[in-house]
Design a protein that fits this description.
Elements lengths: L17 H9 L4 H8 L11 H11 L4 H13 L9 H6 L4 H4 L4 H15 L6 H4 L4 H8 L7 H10 L12 H11 L7 H8 L6 H16 L10
Helix pairs in contact: 2-13, 3-7, 9-10, 11-13
Protein name: DNA-3-methyladenine glycosylase II
Enzyme class: hydrolase
Pfam families: HhH-GPD
């Protein structure tokens, strides 16, 4: 087995609690109507290693989802028999191989950096990540080339299933709150962070409901709050 997949004993990870989160957020004056419109929380993290999630995130930056998946497909095809290329294999690729899959030079450099830092231990495996607090993981991983806070927050929510993450820099989250609160303009990130304190420890669920509010609005199905 590759060294990067070796699992150390881990403390129990904090997990999303859909029923409790929905019940708590349904009582919120702003999120309550959104929860009732959307229904049950359907936030289901994918069982991926952080390394893979980060590489996939880099692929999806600033390109259409289909284009990103096509590039990833070509990269994976270089490693027959593997569900996803191991970092050692990525580092052993000849110069230009990643570019040949359609990735830009910047993305090639970012993917190689993620692979290098995974082999070196900076990027933890899933079990090791479960032992680390949210903010410690954020501070470790934003040191990677091409990885910002938002990318790590998506990892925390959708890969590691952390229950209390509110990505206040996310346009969809801020737009969802604008709609839910009946505001003319989106709140600034700092303001939304302060507002979101009342949703703790279910801020990941709150973000999911705010994303759904923005989605419903795009579809013309969002029911705006009634002014009193």
């Amino acid at each position: 087995m590759d060294a990067w997949l070796m699992l150390a004993p881990a403390a129990p990870a904090r997990k999303l609690a859909p029923r409790q989160a929905r019940a708590a957020l349904a009582a919120d004056p702003v999120l309550g109507p959104v929860v009732r419109q959307v229904g049950p929380l359907q936030l289901k993290p994918l069982q991926r290693e952080p390394y893979e999630a980060l590489v996939r995130a880099i692929a999806h930056q600033q390109v259409h989802g289909r284009a990103a998946e096509a590039m990833l497909g070509r990269l994976i095809a270089l490693f027959p028999g593997q569900d996803f290329p191991h970092p050692e294999g990525v580092l052993a690729l000849p110069e230009g191989a990643i570019r040949g899959c359609g990735f830009s030079g910047a993305k090639q450099a970012a993917i190689r950096d993620i692979a290098l830092k995974t082999v070196g231990g900076l990027v933890p495996n899933r079990r090791a990540a479960a032992r680390l607090p949210d903010e410690e993981l954020i501070q470790r991983l934003v040191a990677l080339r091409g990885v910002g806070r938002w990318t790590v927050e998506m990892l925390l929510i959708f890969t590691l299933g952390r229950p209390d993450i509110l990505p206040v820099d996310d346009f969809g989250v801020r737009e969802g709150y604008r709609l839910a609160a009946g505001l003319d303009a989106q709140p600034k990130p700092r303001a939304l962070a302060e507002i979101g304190l009342r949703w703790s420890p279910y801020r990941s669920a709150a973000a999911w409901y705010l994303w759904r509010a923005a989605d419903l609005n795009k579809e013309g199905r969002f029911k705006a709050p009634v002014a009193i």
